[in-house]
Specification:
Alpha-Beta Plaits, Rossmann fold
């Protein structure tokens, strides 16, 4: 498929487990060559949605296509052309890296298996570790093995479920460099994640909350939403000593709508009427003598916090 053409285009995707609706009428379009970040808290339905797309779970309602195949009726065809990485490492720990990849290649009935496995080892930087047992690998190398296994049958779409959970920062960075390299070659990704910095690396992001997809778009577009930028307010970064004490003081200041710690600073959402001198005076009152204050724009975390609160409020009003 050419870049820009729809790889995933589904409407009303719904999955119920008894009285629990895990995914509630989700519409989603992901285009060829795109890295789509799928965010949401634990239990929001991310994993269930991915499993419906790749044919491991049958939707109770909904329709659409994945890779031009009917998402309900042609799930077996979809499985053959999708790479799916689960949350947990799901390969054989008493087999070597090479043996694991050979087993996966056999499952897909690939011809010229030996050459394909050798190519996979080389492409993902695993050749020097080919004889190492999978159970002896660090989190980052297990992740690399899992990605190699997902790619071995040359899929057009990769569904990755929290692929960087539990790996160190360098491994995460290396992984995302590999994702962008592969996307540059035309591969399409739908990736679930909890990390806001990873969401920033995606072309588009969607946020699922309480089983519903409540927003999707480009990261910079989402930050401009009126729900995230209430009229008559501004966002400030306040860097100071004794940030925990300072945070409590900010919660007591009239006109401060929210205050959150970010490392050695605070992010504030305040009414425009709040002056910097008022903030300084409030901080001095609790023994914080110096603070650097800068105006900032909203982060993706701000987007999802604000939208979650609004959606929860709307649900309570509708109940």
């Amino acid at each position: 498929m050419k870049n820009g053409e729809a790889i995933i285009e589904v409407q009303g995707m719904t999955k119920r487990f008894g009285e629990l609706t895990a995914v509630d009428h989700v519409d989603l379009t992901v285009r060829a060559g795109e890295i789509y970040g799928f965010l949401g808290p634990n239990g929001s339905g991310k994993t269930t949605f991915l499993r419906m797309l790749c044919g491991l779970l049958r939707a109770d309602d909904g329709s659409g296509k994945v890779l031009d195949y009917d998402v309900i009726a042609e799930s077996e065809a979809i499985k053959r052309e999708v790479g799916y990485m689960t949350q947990r490492f799901s390969f054989w720990e008493d087999l070597t890296i090479e043996e694991n990849l050979d087993f996966v290649a056999r499952m897909y009935e690939l011809k010229n298996r030996g050459a394909i496995v050798k190519e996979s080892l080389t492409q993902l930087g695993l050749a020097d570790r080919r004889n190492q047992l999978a159970g002896q690998l660090s989190g980052g190398w297990k992740q690399r093995l899992a990605l190699a296994a997902c790619l071995i049958h040359k899929p057009r779409l990769l569904l990755l479920d929290e692929p960087t959970a539990g790996v160190d920062p360098k491994a995460r960075r290396d992984f995302w460099e590999e994702i962008h390299r592969l996307a540059g070659k035309g591969l399409t990704f739908l990736i679930t994640t909890h990390y806001m910095d990873e969401a920033e690396r995606c072309h588009h992001v969607g946020y699922i909350y309480m089983s519903k997809l409540i927003v999707c778009g480009e990261p910079d577009e989402l930050k401009k939403m009126p729900e995230v930028n209430p009229p008559g307010t501004r966002r400030l970064d306040v860097t100071c000593d004794h940030v925990t004490t300072a945070l409590h003081a900010m919660h007591q200041l009239r006109g401060v709508r929210s205050a959150t710690v970010f490392g050695q600073s605070m992010h504030l959402l305040v009414d425009e009427s709040v002056k910097r001198a008022q903030i300084d005076e409030q901080l001095r009152g609790v023994g914080v003598s110096h603070a650097e204050i800068h105006e900032i724009g909203p982060s993706l975390e701000d987007v999802f916090v604000e939208l979650s609160a609004k959606h929860a409020t709307d649900q309570q009003k509708a109940a």
